[in-house]
Design a protein that fits this description.
single chain; mainly beta; 10-stranded antiparallel β-sheet
């Protein structure tokens, strides 16, 4: 699935997929990734963006009756588990600072990124920080 709009791009995929601004490659698991403008501007003009990476989430000991995971046998229990998942991100945007956020939205440290030929590049990795990472804040 791919949604490309002026203020957001959303993709559900594994492997490689690209939109107008966002190109994702090397995804090692099935996931949804979204790039969202937080200031109401078009992605290429925005000064504040969120990048969200969402692989499989599930409760501890959650159990399904089949491989398609569409027949639930047990809801499981806390804690909720986050699948380890990576993807290389390339954004046709001006140079921006990339910061991982904790699951409560608080800062979790800078993410190494590179900028060249009009592209911002970084790796989204849910296992890159203790407690997991699913959200990144991009700012100018």
């Amino acid at each position: 699935m791919k949604i490309v709009a002026p203020q957001c791009e959303v993709m559900t995929f594994s492997g490689d997929m690209s939109g107008k601004v966002m190109k994702l490659s090397g995804a090692d698991c099935y996931q949804t990734a979204a790039l969202l403008s937080l200031d109401g501007k078009k992605l290429a003009e925005s000064e504040k963006l969120l990048f969200i990476q969402m692989p499989n989430l599930g409760a501890t000991k959650q159990k399904f009756a089949n491989e398609r995971r569409n027949l639930l046998e047990s809801w499981g229990q806390l804690p909720i588990l986050l699948e380890k998942c990576r993807a290389d991100v390339e954004l046709a945007l001006p140079e921006m600072k990339v910061e991982a956020l904790k699951l409560d939205g608080s800062p979790n440290g800078a993410v190494p990124s590179a900028y060249g030929n009009g592209k911002l590049r970084f790796t989204a990795d849910t296992a890159s920080r203790p407690g997991g990472v699913m959200v990144y804040l991009l700012t100018r």
